Amino acid sequence: MGAINRVLVTGGAGFVGSHVAEYYATRGPQVTVLDDFSRASTLAATAEGRDTAAYNYDYLRERYPDIDFVEADIRNSDRIESIVEGHDAVVHLAGQVAVTASLNDPRTDFEVNAQGTFNVLEAARKAESDPAVVFASTNKVYGSNVNEISVREAETRYWYDDPEYERGIPESLSIDDCEHTPYGTSKLAGDLYLQDYAARNEIDAAAFRMSCIYGPRQFGIEDQGWIAHFAISTLEDEPLTVYGDGKQVRDALYVTDLVEAYDAFLSNPTDKPAVYNMGGGPHTTTSLIELFDLLEAQTGRRTAVGFDDWREGDQKVYVSDITRAEEHLDWTPSVDLETGLEQFVEWYIDR
Question: Would the pTM count as exceeding 0.90?
Answer without folding.
Answer: yes
